[in-house]
Design goal:
Belongs to the FPG family. This protein is α+β, with helices and mostly antiparallel strands and about 270 residues long. Helices cover about 30% and strands about 20% of the residues. It folds into 2 domains: about 5-125, MutM-like, N-terminal (N-terminal domain of MutM-like DNA repair proteins, Alpha-Beta Barrel), CATH 3.20.190.10; about 140-265, Orthogonal Bundle (Helicase, Ruva Protein, domain 3), CATH 1.10.8. The strands form 3 sheets. A 4-stranded antiparallel β-sheet has the order 1-6-7-5. A 4-stranded antiparallel β-sheet has the order 2-3-4-8.
């Protein structure tokens, strides 16, 4: 599932290509992916322009010139591709937004959604999300205060969107590995030094993943050499049995809080 770095990468790349351009066409192949009738969805979008793209947690918010907002959550298996109809990958497309000959294809939205809301509805919809881990207001002290009160495991706490926004299965494991902490550790049992390491690791891992374009396998457009670059830089996630980059010990997979998790049993305590 795309996480904070993947959605941030999409935001940055799409903003350069579609912001300010009037939408010329909309096709909906799967009505369950939207929240209003298809006719209304098309009427609201065609002729309008996306004036800005914002990321909040694992969502992208497409702010329209009509003051409406499109809220995208790709969920498991969701991805996007921008290009001409001749460049479109051989994947099932649920929604297509067009700017003349250029199209933004929404692919794999079987669990994800692309909903149209008013600004007020969006604020209410996202009000239960926890703080963004990369904003300047989320300081080391605030992180320590927040996590020290949680009784769950590191794994369950880091992926809980009501605690922190945007971290999922992949980066929770990467953060724990860089901090030298097992994902099965309980937050309330961590000392101040361990919590500081966790905060620093969170900042480093997420910034690096954004810098290298996240881990999504499919490029966003033809010639996109950035998207997916972070996948090769993952140290533990989905690397069961491979040698640890620090000590060479085979990496392990364990179930933590009913979620698969990858770690080094020697480097992490």
């Amino acid at each position: 599932m795309p996480e904070l770095p993947e959605m941030e990468n999409y935001k940055l790349l799409l903003s350069k290509r579609i912001v300010g351009k009037p939408i010329t066409g909309v096709e909906v192949e799967r009505e369950k992916s939207i929240n209003v009738p298809v006719d209304e969805f098309q009427q609201q979008l065609i002729g309008a322009a996306i004036v800005s793209i914002e990321r909040r947690a694992k969502h992208l918010l497409f702010h329209l010139s009509s003051s409406k907002v499109l809220v995208l959550h790709l969920m498991l298996g969701g991805m996007m591709f921008y290009g001409t109809s001749a460049q479109k990958p051989e994947r099932t497309v649920q929604i297509t937004i067009s700017w003349n000959e250029q199209h933004l294809y929404f692919i794999g939205l079987r669990l994800g959604y692309f909903h149209l809301h008013s600004s007020q509805d969006v604020d209410a919809l996202l009000s239960k999300l926890g703080p963004e881990p990369l904003v300047s207001q989320f300081t080391e002290d605030k992180c320590i205060q927040l996590l020290h009160t949680k009784k769950g495991t590191l794994k369950s706490t880091l992926v809980d969107q009501s605690v922190l926004s945007g971290i999922g299965n992949c980066y929770s494991d990467e953060i724990c590995f860089k901090a030298g902490l097992l994902p099965a550790r309980h937050c309330s049992q961590l000392d101040q030094d361990e919590l500081r390491r966790l905060y620093e690791s969170m900042q480093n891992v997420l910034h690096e993943a954004i810098q290298y374009g996240g881990y999504m396998e499919m490029p966003l457009f033809v010639g996109d050499t950035l998207t997916g670059g972070a996948d090769a830089r993952c140290r533990v996630y989905d690397r069961e049995g491979e040698p640890c980059v620090n000590c060479g010990t085979p990496l392990s997979r364990m179930d933590v809080s009913s979620k698969k998790s990858f770690c080094c049993l020697l480097c992490q305590v």
